[in-house]
Amino acid sequence: MKIKKAAILGAGAVGSYVIWGLSNKDGIELGVVAKDKRNKRLKSEGITINGVKYKPNVWTPEEAENIDLLIVALKYGNLPDTLDDIEKIVGENTIVMSLMNGVDSEEIIGKRINPNNILHSFIKVASQKKEDGFHFDPETTIGIIFGELQPPYESERIKAINHLFDNTGIHWRVTKFIQEEIWGKFRLNVCNNLPQAILGAGVGCYHDSEHMSFIRKALRREVESIAEAKEIDLSVIDDSSGRGSAVKASARYSTLQDIDAGRHTEIDMFSGALVRMGKELGIPTPHNEYTYHIIKALEEKNDGMFNYEGDNDKVTWSK
C-alpha cells in the first residue's frame, strides 16, 4: 500500500500543519478540498503558514473522489454540512484520518462511510491564526498520533502513513492505545482549553491561580468519571499523553482564540458532549454543565445579544 494522492478537508489551524509538512514530499499529489467561494479564494490566495505562502492543489469533492488518504481537519460545527462531501470523496480503499478535537468525530463520520476506512487519530499542535496567516512552532509541536483499534497494530496502512510522514518535518507517533489517547487529548482540551476561555487569560493562569487550578481539576475529574464508565482506562496513556505542546504562559488556546475573534466555539464538542454522555450514563457533570452555559453566554455576548447601550437599552425586571 502506498499513498500517492492525499487531500485535506479543512485548511485552518490544524490543516495548515499537514499542508506545511506534506507540501515538499516527493511522489505525492496533495490537495485541499473546498467548494464555491472558499475554493476560489484558496486557488487565488493560497495559505500563509509561518510566514511562507503555500499554494496546494484545490479540489472540489468530485475532483477528490477515490483518493488514497483524506485528512479531516474541520471545526466541529462544520462537520454535519460536509458529510455528503466526505461520502463522495471516500472510495473503497481511501484511508480517513480525523484530526478533529473531541471524541466522537469518527463515530459521526462512520455513520456515512464504511467505519473500516477510518484510521483513528488526533493531533496536538498549538497553532494560531494571526493577520499574516497561521503560526506554530515545528520543534515543540507534538504532532499526529494514530493507531489501529485492534491488532495487527503494524498494519499495511500504518506502514503507509509512516512512509508518508517520513522526512516531512511532521512529528508523529503510532500507539496501541489510540482510543485512550484520543480521550487523553479530550481531557486536556476540557481542562486546559475551557477555563482560560472563561477568564480571558493565558495558560499561565493555571499555575498562578489556585482558583483556576481548582476549576481545571474539577473538570478533569468529570472527564475521568465518564471515561471510566465507558471502560476507557486513561492510566495506560498518562505517561505518554498527559501533556500538550510546550507553550508560553501567554498562550491562548482555540476556545479563547474563537472568543477573541468573535467566532462561535467548539464547546458543543467539549463540555456539551460530556454533559450529554453524563446524562446517558447517569453521572453528574455540574462543572462541565456550568462551563458549557458560560461559554455559550460568551458567544451570545459576541453576537451582540447584550448590547443594552443607547437606543438598544430597554427596561427589564430582575428575577
Order of helices and strands: EHEHEEEEHEHEEEEHEHHHHHHH
Please, how many domains? Answer: 2
What's the total number of strands?
12
CATH topology of the largest domain: Rossmann fold
Number of helices: 12
Assign the structural class, choosing from mainly alpha, mainly beta, alpha/beta, alpha+beta, or little secondary structure: alpha/beta
Kindly estimate the percentage of residues that lie in beta strands according to DSSP: 5-15%
Taking the alpha carbons of the first and last residues, their distance comes to 65 Å
Helix content: 40-55%
Low-confidence stretches: none
The main β sheet shows up as: 5 strands, parallel
Rg, alpha carbons? 20 Å
Q: CATH H level of the largest domain: which superfamily?
A: NAD(P)-binding Rossmann-like Domain
Task: Supply the CATH architecture of the largest domain.
Answer: 3-Layer(aba) Sandwich
**What is the average per-residue confidence, as pLDDT, rounded to a whole number?**
93
